[in-house]
Every structure is written in structure tokens, then in C-alpha cells.
């Protein structure tokens, strides 16, 4: 079978990365978490005390950054210039600022280029906000995964509990999800939007396993 791409877009905490990772394992293809890349840039800017309007410095930093994804104990870790930033990029502070950083045109321009580069010549499943619309508009399979904000907040809350991350209440998580969705879907460049040819999946009443099966079935049927 020749190389193919699967695009999975959707709002915050809709289960995209869990689903994408499982599909990559089932089909033995590469998984690219584009949200992690925006988070990493946000983390590096904050660490270097670069303000989000210092565009020259942001561009200089972006040009020096090299991304690699590697599995460690079955968890996908993002390495930036050989440095593992997997836990840093999940902090509350990074989550709070990532939407603002990802709305900066030069950030999108350079990261989209890098994402296309990683996807070239291989079969991939890529998740994000603009994969089916902008990054890989020719992807053979496209899905838009969503769920009610309250359902997404509850799932994230449970996942945080499992990972001993207890700094945010359920209400704070839901408020953050709603704020990020609004920011991501109203920004000028590449807003969060379902591609016209993407299959919509509302997982409010589905388990993550159901979503994975649904996508796998669709891929086999569309083939
Ligand atoms: O997927 P995740 O929630 O980790 O993404 C973090 C943030 O990165 C999103 O809220 C969004 O602002 C940004 N993002 C984006 N485009 C993508 C992936 C993520 O703008 N393709």
C-alpha cells in the first residue's frame, strides 16, 4: 500500500491524541502530535523570557529548533534539539499561553512547514486544529473529533487524577477548555475548523475505544 495520511482535528481535550496514538500503533505508522510542537515553542519562549510580540526573536528561536518524537515506556515524548520536554509542555502555564503563541503568523508558518516535512514520504496520523484544512489538505482520511465541553473537561480531569496532576479543579479545566476553543476557532490564520471532507465524530456518548474502532472501520471501508 502506498503512503497515506490520516488527519484528526478537533477542539481541546477531545481525545485526539489518545485516538491518534492508538491508530498509529494499530496501523504501524508514525504519529505526529502538532499540539505538542506549539506547546514546545510556547515553553521555550517563556523559558527565554521572550515576549509574544518580539517577532524577530521568536523567528530566530523557531529557526534553531529541531523536533523529534520518540517513544519512552510507550509514551510519546517530544524532543527539542535533543532535549526531552514532554512534561514541561503539559504545565498549566504553557497550556494558558499556547493559544496566544499559536496565533502568531510566523509561528504557524514555520511549524506547518516542519509538520509537512516530517510527513513527507511516510504514512502518518497527525492531530491538531488545522491538519485537514491547511497542513495536509490532501490527506486521504480526515476526521473531526469533538464532544461537549463538560464531557471533555471530565475526561481530562480523570486523566489528570490518574497522572497525579491535581492542581486544577474540574471547573477550572472546563473554563480553560472553553477559553482555548474560543481563541483557537476565532483566530485569523488557520482557525480550528472542520474540513469540508472530514468525517465528524461527536464522542460525547462514545468511549475512546468506540472512537478508535469507528475510525479504523472507516479507513478500511474508504480504502
Ligand atoms: O492539542 P493541544 O491541546 O495540545 O494543543 C495545544 C494548543 O496548540 C491548542 O489549543 C492550539 O492553540 C494550538 N494548536 C494549533 N494548531 C494545531 C495544534 C495545536 O493551533 N495544529
UniProtKB/TrEMBL annotation:
It is found in: Cytoplasm. This is Cytidylate kinase. It catalyses: dCMP + ATP = dCDP + ADP; CMP + ATP = CDP + ADP. ATP binds at residues 10-18. The lineage of its organism: Bacteria, Bacillati, Bacillota, Bacilli, Lactobacillales. Its main location: cytoplasm. Pfam families: Cytidylate_kin (PF02224). It comes from the Bacteria. Keywords: ATP-binding, Cytoplasm, Kinase, Nucleotide-binding, Transferase. Its EC number is 2.7.4.25. InterPro entries: Cytidylate_kin, Cytidylate_kinase_dom, P-loop_NTPase. Belongs to the cytidylate kinase family. Type 1 subfamily. One of its GO terms (molecular function) is kinase activity. It is an enzyme of class 2 (transferase). Residues 6-219 form the Cytidylate kinase domain.
